[in-house]
UniProtKB/TrEMBL annotation:
Positions annotated as active site in the UniProt record: 14, 141
Summary of the function given for this chain in its UniProt record: Catalyzes the phosphorylation of the position 2 hydroxy group of 4-diphosphocytidyl-2C-methyl-D-erythritol.
Keyword vocabulary terms for this entry: ATP-binding, Isoprene biosynthesis, Kinase, Nucleotide-binding, Transferase
UniProt keyword annotation of Kinase present: yes
HAMAP family, sorted: IspE
The protein's name in its UniProt record: 4-diphosphocytidyl-2-C-methyl-D-erythritol kinase
GHMP kinase N-terminal domain location: 69-148
Length: 286
């Protein structure tokens, strides 16, 4: 390992184009079907290695201890693997654009980018599958960001089939609230028995987000935002929210909607991407 190697790496957002919950496992996690669409908006990390073995985080206050930040947890998870030399350390600057608890997978993407960057900078030579296994222990959405492809997903989100989705523009909107994923998945009235569908049925338009009725009920702000965005197209929740999105015919149309978004809500105009810039950022180092 070389001392003081530095890499800027992106951490893209995702939206769930649909989310069906098909069952509940014995460990409480839910089996689901979803399509992860990666977006060209996201966080950014600057990772600089050291040989003192220390992991340090430089980033905005997310209201959690540094040791709970998924960036630090990802680095520590790599350090805990048997092949990682003791002296491997890093300072990671986190530049957040994505909201926490937004359903855009920001924390999970930060974690995946950390795994990808440190695997390359520390010269660990771990396979994508090994990084995905380490990532899955940090969050159900981490493996897709390690893969770095838009994908069809099953299981708890870790059984991935890469997809090349057609070009698309989205208006993504964040209502003025944060949704707690665990609260939605543990709700008594959550639909947990949606019959599995085929990819063909999804592309034919036969899908929804099973979390949406519960989130609308518990978070009136999300309900209001969905009703507002519905005026412009098919508005849908991503993950367990709070963010919602609507597919637009063009970038111009998305920007027109963005201009009309009430000030209390944050909005992004985003293009769908099929490959993560994070993977490209590390490729030159491997
Ligand atoms: C809803 C999605 O955003 C869809 O992309 C993800 O499945 C959630 O992924 P995540 O935020 O990385 O979620 P995790 O941090 O792994 O899990 C948070 C909590 O959600 C519940 N959870 C999550 C994923 C899943 N397939 N089944 C669950 O029941 C569990 O109670 C878990 O304790
Ligand atoms: N680097 C990070 N960025 C954002 N949240 C983080 C980070 N590290 C830890 N967290 C914690 O993780 C939780 C959810 O983060 P995340 O941004 O992945 O949620 P999300 O956008 O709802 O994603 P998902 O779609 O995976 O549910 C929050 O409670 C937050 O405090």
């Amino acid at each position: 390992m070389t001392d003081g190697r530095r890499l800027r790496i992106h951490a893209p957002a995702k939206i769930n184009l649909f989310l069906h919950i098909t069952g509940r496992r014995d460990d409480g996690y839910h089996n689901l079907q979803t399509v992860f669409q990666l977006l060209d908006i996201g966080d950014s990390l600057v990772v600089e290695t050291n040989r003192s073995g220390v992991i340090a985080l430089d980033g905005p206050d997310l209201g959690i201890a540094d040791s709970d930040n998924l960036v630090v947890r990802a680095a520590m998870a790599l350090k805990a693997l048997p092949g990682t030399p003791e002296h491997c350390g890093a300072t990671i600057r986190l530049e957040k654009q994505l909201p926490s608890g937004g359903g855009l997978g920001g924390g999970s993407s930060d974690a995946a980018s950390t795994l990808l960057a440190l695997n390359a900078l520390w010269g660990l030579r771990l396979s994508t599958a090994a990084l995905q296994r380490t990532g899955a222990a940090l969050g159900a959405d981490v493996p897709v960001f390690v893969l770095g492809r838009s994908a069809w997903a099953e299981g708890i989100g870790e059984q991935l089939t890469p997809l090349d989705l057609p070009p698309a523009w989205y208006l993504v909107l964040k209502p003025d609230c944060a949704v707690h994923t665990g609260e939605i998945f543990s709700h008594r009235q959550l639909t947990r028995d949606t019959p599995p569908i085929t990819m063909h049925a999804f592309f034919a338009g036969d899908s929804r987000n099973d979390c949406e009725p519960i989130v609308r009920q518990l978070y009136p702000e999300v309900d209001n935002a969905l009703n507002w965005l519905q005026n412009f197209g098919e508005a849908r929740l991503t993950g367990t929210g709070a963010c919602i999105f609507c597919r637009c015919g063009s970038e111009v149309q998305a920007r027109r909607i963005a201009e009309q978004v009430p000030a209390r809500w944050k909005a992004w105009v985003a293009a769908g991407i099929n490959r993560s810039p994070a993977v490209k950022n590390t490729e030159l180092l491997l």
